[in-house]
Design a protein that fits this description.
With 431 residues, this protein is an alpha+beta fold. It is built from 16 helices and 19 strands.
Length: 431
């Protein structure tokens, strides 16, 4: 896998990315500037490095992009000498990657406790024993999107539980001539919602012990109970899986957010990043609620983390970039320039999510995303999504979610999870 080296020019947003092999250097370029090398799977980090380079003339940040930076790190050989100083990306806290990083606190010079700066639930999975090895950068969350004219139908102005979602959705249903013409919600409409529901209900998906037969583990009893609950939800609320499918097929020509805005359904499920990328005229008719269970809001698993590598080169440059990046001033600049460049339908927030810094998300985001007023994610409810291997997105898409859908559609109340183990084994063997 080759990196894309991003070179920055004087213009604020002038970025040229060219495919190249990594370059060897001894910590300085020809002009004497100390260099910090950043590997990432977040393409927008190239812009951030450009802002850093423009803000001072002592250090220079260079960025290499990889589709899956965690896998690239795991492939590194001990003799490689052109690795990164800093890594920003997904899955960095997996067992095969986190050992490559040194404790970050000797580079981060914040004067207040981390738990007051960052969402505490996101710090947890970046720790090794008592050392904070990784800092969270950003996170995404699934939200319930609805026509703002239907706000009076919801019991809470900020969030909705799984039970509240089921009740509100069922109450909204309307049948004419034995056919649903309006359906509040179905778990089968959104595959990511299916997975999140099992998480909220205690399935405890996680990276397995390296010695285990399968790459992921889970609480089988809780998963069986979650699958049975989801299947019962579809049958009780919408009559049957077939009736649910018939409604979906009839109206699937419209996007879910348009169906919600038009009143055909009460709720659509979206990533909050996708919600804020909607064109302003589409988003104007909509509002959203957080989805929670037992006072827990679980972000999607691909939390972006930040780590300083053990074999880093320029300590001063790494510390300078770290402290610049994790400042409210820098993140305000990132948000302001992103909006000014009119790329709001391409990028959202910080690395396409909410900033993991509470002050940024709760205060600064509202300056650039008007729909955030009164909608900041409640920090005390944000919990860790868990630790997963870097190939988890593909595994979830190809194995776990199809199995969940099959269980819900089956006649065994979704309790036969034995085939999931065999499917995972087959997938692991083939891959």
């Amino acid at each position: 896998m080759r990196g894309k080296r991003c070179l920055f020019f004087a213009r604020a947003l002038g970025v040229l990315c060219a495919v190249s092999t990594p370059l060897f250097y001894a910590g300085c370029d020809s002009s004497g500037k100390k260099i910090v090398t950043i590997w990432t799977d977040q393409s927008v980090v190239a812009l951030y490095a450009g802002y850093f380079n423009a803000a001072q003339d002592t250090y220079k940040a260079e960025v290499f992009y990889f589709d899956n930076v965690s896998e690239r790190l795991a492939e590194m050989k001990p003799e490689e000498k052109d690795g990164p100083d800093i890594v920003i990306g997904n899955w960095l806290n997996s067992s095969g990657t986190i050992a490559l990083f040194r404790p970050v606190m000797s580079f981060y010079q914040g004067s207040t406790p981390l738990e007051t700066v960052f969402y505490p639930g996101l710090l947890e999975d970046g720790r090794v024993k008592d050392n904070q090895v990784l800092l969270p950068v950003s996170f995404d969350v699934q939200v319930l999107v609805f026509d703002r004219n239907n706000a009076a139908l919801l019991p809470d102005p900020f969030s909705l539980s799984l039970t509240g979602l089921q009740e509100a959705g069922t109450a909204y249903n309307l049948m004419q001539n034995d056919v649903w013409t309006r359906v509040g919600f179905s778990p089968l409409w959104n595959e990511e919602f299916l997975f999140l529901s099992t998480v909220l209900l205690g399935a405890d998906w996680r990276e397995a012990n390296p010695a285990a037969a399968n790459p992921v583990a889970w609480d089988d009893a809780k998963l069986k109970a979650a699958l049975a609950m989801l299947r019962e939800w579809v049958i009780i609320a919408n009559g049957s899986v077939q009736a649910d499918d018939d409604f979906s097929f009839k109206y699937s020509y419209e996007s879910p957010d348009k169906l919600a805005a038009g009143g055909r359904i009460l709720f659509s499920v979206m990533q909050v990043s996708d919600f804020f990328k909607l064109a302003e005229e589409r988003r104007a008719a909509l509002d959203f609620r957080w989805l929670e269970h037992e006072d827990r809001i679980v972000p999607t698993a691909n939390v972006v983390y930040y780590g300083v590598c053990r074999n880093m080169g320029s300590r001063g440059a790494a510390a300078a970039f770290t402290n610049w990046f994790f400042s409210e001033e820098a993140q305000n600049e990132i948000l302001a320039k992103g909006r000014a460049a009119q790329n709001a339908e391409t990028f959202f927030g910080i690395t396409d999510g909410f900033s993991a810094m509470r002050g940024v998300t709760e205060t600064i985001f509202t300056r650039y995303y008007t729909g955030m007023l009164g909608h900041a994610p409640p920090g005390e409810k944000i919990v860790s999504p868990g630790v997963f291997p870097p190939f988890f997105p593909e595994l979830k898409e190809r194995v776990i979610i199809p199995a969940i859908r099959e269980y819900i559609r089956s006649n065994n109340n979704g309790t036969n999870t034995g085939t999931l183990e065999s499917r995972l084994s087959d997938w692991t063997r083939i891959e």
